[in-house]
Amino acid sequence: MNISRRNMNRILARALSGSLLFTAALPVTALAQTDDGNQTEDERQIAEETAASLQDGVLEYGELQDMIRLYNPTMEQALSSYNNTLEQYAEARAQLKRGQYSVSTDKEEAEDNGDTEDYAYYASEEAIDKSAAASYQDMYESMQETSSTSSLRQTERQMTVAAQALMISYDTMQLEKETAEKMCQLYEKQYELAQTKQQAGMATQADVLSANEQLLNARASLETIQESQDEIYRSLCLMVGQETDGSLTIAEIPSADVSKIDSYDLESDTQKAIGNNYTLMSERHTSSGGTTSGVNNKKRNVAESEENLKIQMESLYNDILQKKQELEAEKTAYEKAVQEKNLADTKYSLGMMS
């Protein structure tokens, strides 16, 4: 018998067993690696166009989730770790299968030679390799299941929501900055006018100082808004894994498609939410302990969570309808104001008002 081979196989078997025990205890917190080899030509073209769009230096609101998934440092690290683990599982299984084939050959030779001791040994080694390979295969497949990747997908979604909030804040700050800039221009003209009036004896020094104070306050307000917007910009850049040197342009947020609200179905959307909610998914996969009380507690917790989610969905649905009504009212008021302004402009042009 080949003693060195026997010792080597035993060491390998022990190492693999220890590795299996260790890696099986690791939490799975990442998404599966995309298999580019299985993509069609159209799918590859779409993927290339998407990648090019993400790297065009302009951050669109609809790109946030893809940017976070691909470039966020935390997500990148988690995905890299996950893909490395998948590769290790696949390589370990491949090595075990090769070892299984080699041992199987030795077993057949021992059988042909009538060496029962070697035959028993190699049969045992073959069984160890086969069992370990199957375990790696099971873990490989388990890591790619939806339930196993829910943690990272939930983190990705939370980061996306946070990035969306930042981008909305940035957009709001941009509008505030534009308003503040116009106010600065207005107060600059008022200050210049106050100085001119003072020279003509039509305004006092107090009037000039008051106009100057208003200008300084407007400039300070603009500076504060700019600082806040810059901070939001830096946070948003870091979240999507981009440089904070100003090279990334933040695009305007597109207007909401209000017409989609008419297609909302509270009952249908609530059922979808119940099926896709990460908290509920986690509770459904939580072990009941195999006891009657555990099963009952699990059912009760899931039922309570579903009921709470239904309440939240109804609240959100009602909030959307209320916001829609408020928007329609604002549009009506705006249209009325535009009509009044146009009428006033016409009267002014005709000399009917000063």
UniProtKB/TrEMBL annotation:
InterPro entries: TAT_signal (IPR006311). It comes from the Bacteria. Residues 1-32 form the signal peptide. SUPFAM superfamilies: Outer membrane efflux proteins (OEP). Keywords: Coiled coil, Signal. Residues 170-197, 295-344 form a coiled coil. The keyword Signal applies. This is TolC family protein. It comes from Candidatus Enterocloster excrementigallinarum.
